[in-house]
Amino acid sequence: MEITKNIALVAHDHRKKDIIEWVQWNYELLLQHRLICTGTTGKLIEETLKAKLNDTGRHIEIKRLKSGPLGGDQQIGSMIVQGEIDCMIFLWDPMTPQPHDVDVKALLRIAVLYNIPIACNRSTADFLISSPIMNRVYNPVLKDYSGYIERQV
Questions:
Q1: What is the pTM of this model?
Q2: What is the CATH number assigned to the segment(s) 6-149?
């Protein structure tokens, strides 16, 4: 991971307000990194940051993917596999069933498999974004899965 991180931001419908408040609170730190978001979450974050930065002359580019249920979660997962995501803030709603629950589980699984730091609530997101490691080169330990790949079926 380089000094400038690629941060995935994802939030379920009932958690969009939380991620917007979190972005408003942490926008100065977020400006130092690249943001990748699923559809609606990205639109809301973009609007929030434009309003925050309107008078400063600063701006941030946000890569917006598809909405989660339309494949955005899978796009993030693919980017993790390709080494294009360094960490993920994924505020999901544990109290509401999701129509794309299988995709959500697959995204969390792939993030764990590739040792990507994941924050699933605001407190953990605060710890993650404020970590001294966020502003330096970091080489996470990756498990060797070559035995799995080369196994005989």
A1: 0.90
A2: 3.40.50.1380
